[in-house]
Write a structure and sequence with these properties.
With 278 residues, this protein is of the alpha/beta class. It has a domain at 15-193 and 226-233: NADP-dependent oxidoreductase domain (TIM Barrel, Alpha-Beta Barrel). The chain is built from ten helices and ten strands. It has helices at 27-40, 54-62, 84-98, 118-130, 144-154, 172-181, 201-209, 214-224, 236-243, 252-259; strands spanning 6-8, 14-16, 20-21, 44-46, 72-77, 103-108, 134-140, 160-164, 184-188, 228-229. The strands form two sheets. It has an eight-stranded parallel β-sheet with strand order 3-4-5-6-7-8-9-10. The protein has a two-stranded antiparallel ribbon with strand order 1-2. Helix 1 (27-40) links the parallel strand 3 and strand 4. Helix 7 (201-209) crosses helix 8 (214-224). The radius of gyration is 18 Å and the shape is globular. The termini are far apart. It binds nicotinamide-adenine-dinucleotide. Nicotinamide-adenine-dinucleotide binds at residues 21-23, 46, 109, 140-141, 162, 188-194, 198, 213, 215, 230-233, 238, 241-242.
């Protein structure tokens, strides 16, 4: 079986480029589908406190027969827990639910610019990394200005930035900023949440050419442009199908055609990090 390539962070640790996300998956379902994802070959799991399924992910890890050093686990600090001391406490609670001693990647879930607590929150993540409790630290849903601000305030550059990113919203500017600063880009809702994108003729034609599915071609596009990518499915056959995207190699014209589907800000599905205030 093909295994996911690893990408190297600016702190020297590595991350499997293809992972499995569990947003909107109930805790008891998470245990089952994360087990299926491990069976399919995934070793990188993306959860968050707000998903309410860290315990289910933890049970799947415990019953997998896989050692933690074979796995890569991400969780995220929820917005209500921002601030220095509250972040340290929220981290311990997440670890308790996951049943882990150390975490591979901890992310600030949203910048939440209005709260003005993201710099203190980032300082807490730096402290957790110093203490060896988390290997790698990063952020999610930041603006370019927010990234620059936490770098300038602390001298520590996030290793990764997890953002909404799919062919209809390809985030060229933030990807360029990341590349220029040694920040990997990680794509959330990489399949555009399974909607119109997978029926787009450009995508279906390329899928036919490669004898693949639309989802596989979109995941292969993410891999080709250097994104870390975390598609979600709770259907075992699709979990396997998504992992098998690793076997598909797009040519330069395919990549360019899919990149050409970008709709700029019109393509955004989720909240705008510059204004999100929940
Ligand atoms: P996604 O783009 O991965 O789409 C998932 C949906 O696509 C599935 O529910 C299903 O309907 C469809 N799908 C999946 N595989 C398919 C296949 N092979 N064929 C046909 N349809 C298929 O959407 P997502 O769940 O929003 O994003 C993925 C992950 O990103 C999440 O689970 C979560 O881990 C992460 N995420 C993070 C944030 C954040 O704020 N940091 C926000 C949203 C999602």
């Amino acid at each position: 079986m093909t295994t996911s390539p690893n990408l190297t962070f600016n702190d020297g640790h590595t991350i499997p480029q293809l992972g499995y996300g569990v947003w909107q998956v109930e805790d008891d379902v998470a245990e089952k589908v994360v087990g299926q994802a491990f069976k399919a070959g995934f070793r990188h799991i993306d959860t968050a406190k707000i998903y309410g399924n860290e315990a289910g992910v933890g049970r799947a890890i415990a019953s997998s027969g896989l050692a933690h050093d074979e796995l890569f686990i991400t969780t995220k600090l929820w917005n209500d827990d921002q601030g220095y001391d509250s972040t340290l406490a929220a981290f311990e609670a997440s670890m308790e639910r996951l049943g882990l001693d150390t975490l591979d990647l901890y992310l600030i879930h949203w910048q939440k610019p209005g709260a003005k607590s993201y710099v203190d929150t980032w300082r807490a993540l730096i402290e957790l990394q110093k203490q060896g409790k988390v290997k790698t630290i990063g952020v999610s849903n930041f603006t370019k200005e927010g990234l620059q601000e936490i770098i300038d305030a602390t001298g520590v550059t996030p290793a990764i930035h997890q953002i909404e990113l799919h062919p209809f919203f390809n985030q060229a500017e933030l990807r360029e900023f990341g590349a220029a600063h040694g920040i990997l880009t990680q794509a959330w809702s990489p399949l555009g949440q399974g909607g119109e994108l997978l029926k787009d003729k450009v995508v279906t034609d390329i899928a036919e050419k490669h004898n693949a599915t639309s989802a596989q071609v979109v995941i292969a596009w993410h891999l080709a442009i250097g994104n870390v990518v975390i598609p979600k499915s709770v259907t075992e056959s699709r979990i396997q199908e998504n992992y098998a995207s690793l076997d598909i190699t797009l040519d330069a014209a395919d990549v360019e055609a899919i990149s050409g589907l970008d709709r700029g800000a019109e393509g955004r599905i989720g909240a705008d990090p510059a204004t999100a205030d929940f």
